């Protein structure tokens, strides 16, 4: 059994681990520790298959070698359709160049880990927003590092924020019209207009 001081896996953000049960989080941390020490990559993959967050292993060029069912659910492809494909095949075109740079920084050791917000293209064509934390390890007997990514689907959160921003912009436009002498409507696009301040934040924050 590993002691707590050995279990420090600082590249896993705490907001990610809270989505796991305490037991699963501990076991996954231990599996990642063992994998990083090149002791049990197979054990890590076994635990990753039951994890609620998307987990991917890839080579330094971004070719996917392992993907768990949760990642499959996020992007809508079966696991067998993901393996041996590049991350670029599932990434929104506008994000590919910046993601290549992020991957290179981790794979070449410039950064121990990196956390980014990126967009995937779902199999049905819709855009999936995700929080992705990337790290790397060097398996025993290999000269090529493995890249590990933990993927959290934040699409709903992003859409809520976009809607709040839209309402803010609409409210500001109507406020300016009121200043110009025109009446401010009480309802705008199906939403009740609430003045900015504490009450506004409680409603939409």
UniProtKB/TrEMBL annotation:
UniProt KW keywords: Kinase, Phosphoprotein, Transferase
Any one GO molecular-function label of the UniProt entry: protein histidine kinase activity
Phosphoprotein found in the keyword field: yes
Family matches, as Gene3D superfamilies: PAS domain
Chemical reaction(s) catalysed: ATP + protein L-histidine = ADP + protein N-phospho-L-histidine
Keyword ATP-binding annotated: no
Coiled coil region boundaries: none
EC number(s) recorded for this UniProt protein: 2.7.13.3
Residue ranges annotated for the PAC domain, each copy included: 114-166
Enzyme class: transferase
PROSITE patterns linked: PAC, PAS
Domain PAS: 40-110
UniProt name for this protein: histidine kinase
């Amino acid at each position: 059994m590993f002691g707590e001081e050995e279990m420090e896996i600082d590249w896993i953000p705490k907001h990610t681990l809270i989505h796991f049960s305490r037991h699963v989080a501990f076991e996954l941390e231990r599996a990642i520790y063992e994998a990083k020490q090149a002791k049990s990559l197979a054990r890590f993959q076994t635990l990753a298959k039951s994890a609620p967050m998307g987990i991917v292993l890839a080579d330094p060029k971004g070719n996917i070698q392992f993907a768990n069912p949760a990642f499959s659910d996020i992007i809508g492809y079966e696991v067998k359709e993901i393996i041996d494909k590049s991350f670029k095949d599932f990434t929104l075109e506008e994000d590919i160049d910046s993601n290549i740079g992020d991957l290179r920084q981790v794979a070449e050791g410039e950064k121990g880990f990196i956390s980014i917000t990126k967009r995937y293209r779902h199999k049905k064509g819709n855009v999936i927003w995700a929080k992705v934390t990337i790290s790397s390890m060097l398996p025993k007997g290999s000269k090529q590092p493995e890249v590990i990514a933990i993927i959290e689907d934040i699409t709903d959160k992003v859409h809520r924020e976009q809607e709040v921003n839209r309402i803010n912009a609409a409210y500001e436009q109507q406020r300016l019209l009121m200043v110009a002498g025109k009446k401010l409507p009480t309802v705008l696009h199906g939403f009740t207009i609430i003045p900015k301040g504490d009450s506004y934040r409680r409603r939409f924050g």
